[in-house]
């Protein structure tokens, strides 16, 4: 492995995630689960201000300066929270000259859902959906592949980014979205560490919230 790439993968990772009801931060000091530090909190009335306060409590300035890569979830989730955490992630990335990448909330939960439902066939695809209050669904499509025979090496590809659908096809596998704060933060850390991030420090410009639905839904 290239020395610079190896060095980059071994340096600390920061992730920021939100669901329908909560937000959280994750910090991995090295490629070791033991080093994980997680913070999870349910939304409050002043999410905008308290998000910054809680973030400053979560990570010291010294550790923040050591962060070498950041990943953020971009939704579908709570509309306002998705917007705020993406703004926070972009701002930090720009300030500390650190690459930023992103994953949809459904992509983050896809491996957990696949394992829970024993979907272990190569190239097996399935949908993850969230029923809208008024009508229709927001759904994304995922495909399973394996890097080895071990379940831990299960890899999920996002074939279709979450989008609005009027209905789901009855003949295709589908599972309702199920946010799990701690599990999803850990998976986001794993995805971030496995991704070969572009070294471009301006990559934050490419990361935007996923808005398949408007706030009224």
In what order do the strands lie side by side in the largest sheet? 3-2-1-4-5
Radius of gyration: 17 Å
- What's the CATH class of the largest domain, please? Alpha Beta
- Could you say how many structural domains there are in total? 2
Distance between the termini: 47 Å
Characterize the main sheet: 5 strands, mixed
**Helix count from the secondary structure assignment:** 6
Mean pLDDT: 85
Please state the overall shape, judged from the principal axes of the Cα atoms: globular
Task: Describe the protein.
The chain is an alpha/beta fold. The chain folds into two domains: 3-104 and 181-206, ATPase, nucleotide binding domain (Nucleotidyltransferase, domain 5, 2-Layer Sandwich), CATH 3.30.420; 106-176, no CATH class. Helices cover 32% and strands 28% of the residues. It has helices at residues 3-10, 47-58, 61-66, 79-95, 105-116, 181-194; strands spanning 13-18, 22-28, 36-42, 69-73, 100-103, 125-131, 137-146, 154-165, 174-176. Helix 4 (79-95) links the parallel strand 4 (69-73) and strand 5 (100-103). The chain is globular, with a radius of gyration of 17 Å. Residues 1-8 have low confidence and may be disordered.
């Amino acid at each position: 492995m290239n020395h610079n790439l190896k060095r980059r993968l071994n340096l600390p990772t920061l992730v920021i995630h939100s669901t329908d009801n909560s937000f959280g931060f994750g910090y991995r000091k090295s490629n070791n689960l033991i080093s994980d530090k997680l913070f999870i909190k349910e939304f409050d009335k002043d999410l905008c201000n308290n998000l910054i306060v809680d973030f400053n409590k979560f990570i010291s300035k010294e550790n923040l300066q050591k962060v070498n890569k950041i990943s953020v979830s971009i939704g579908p989730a709570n509309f306002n929270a998705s917007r705020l955490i993406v703004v926070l992630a972009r701002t930090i990335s720009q300030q500390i000259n650190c690459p930023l990448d992103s994953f949809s909330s459904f992509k983050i939960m896809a491996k957990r859902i696949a394992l829970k439902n024993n979907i272990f066939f190569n190239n097996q695809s399935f949908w993850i959906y969230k029923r809208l209050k008024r009508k229709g669904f927001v759904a994304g499509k995922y495909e399973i592949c394996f890097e080895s025979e071990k379940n831990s090496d299960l890899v999920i590809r996002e074939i279709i980014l979450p989008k609005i659908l009027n209905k789901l096809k009855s003949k295709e596998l589908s599972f309702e979205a199920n946010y799990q704060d701690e599990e999803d933060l850990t998976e986001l850390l794993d995805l971030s560490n496995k991704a070969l991030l572009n070294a471009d420090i301006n990559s934050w410009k490419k990361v935007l919230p996923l808005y398949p639905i408007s706030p009224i839904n």
